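Hi Y.,

Following your request, here is the sequence exactly as I used it, all 314 residues.
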Amino acid sequence: MHDALPPGSPMPLVSVLVPAYNHERFVERCLDSVLEDPYPAKEIVIIDDGSTDGTGRRIAAWTARHGNDIPVEYVRRANKGVAATLNELAARARGDFLRLGASDDYLLPGGLDAQVDYLLGHPDKWAVVGDSEVVDQDGRRLYDSGMRDLHHADKSLYATDDGIRRAVISQWAIGGPVTLVRRRALETVAGWSESLRIDDWDFFLRLAAHDAIGFIDQNVCAYRIHTSNLSRTRDPRLRVHHLMEARDVAIRRSAMFEEPYRTLLLAQSHYIGAKIGFLERRVCAVTVHMAAYALMLLMSRTRRRVAHHVLERA
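Below is the corresponding structure, written out as tokens. Let me know if you'd prefer a different format.
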């Protein structure tokens, strides 16, 4: 393992970034999983983002018990949202590699080793994602693969840069804390957009535009489904708001991509527009957006075939 390191080199420090909010039932399992992971060079940076339950007390008690076992930086402050919290966590971290965590999920042993190995062996990649197993609020396994079983993704797409671009644009299937990112990548993609309520897709689109994402077909975390996160996704008003944000992101980020990916992302903006129209019961809007989506999807596929033939002839 770690063959890309010169003999005798110290292991690169991994900072596990944990934004915590109202997860008093789950946060200690999250922190335990970082401590239990066999990767030796690691630290925890955790921010309680204005929790109104006992999350802060649980973190403080855990830190008091294990502060000598692993370096921990813990901050408790008023709520600022996930994106602002992630940016602050990254600024406080000391590691060259940043593992994105979540206080209701937990790491699986060996995931850090595998992801560090990948990035050491692929210096052109800025981030690597893995898969997750899906568990319920009591830790019982629901699905073996979050990508395949929960998001119904074609994991074979993630084998190539072209496939990853197309997957990130149109088959978003990254769930849970499955990403290890190089710190220097944040300087290029400018971290997380604090104007967005949910920034995951925007962040990964910016990475995909640089062909900067790698993939390992290994479960690196347990993604937990529980009452709180399900209630958020089922609220129709929140769903419309999130979809409107996503549509704006698709339109804005399309300029970062060359063809055929630009057209594919614009097609996705119409598909999202159709979802909004459906939730708002606007049949005409659904029809118009789906027609535009179908046309632009056909255009992107045609342009992809043309580009492929050009490359073959070259």
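The chain has twelve helices and nine strands.

Thanks again,
Q.
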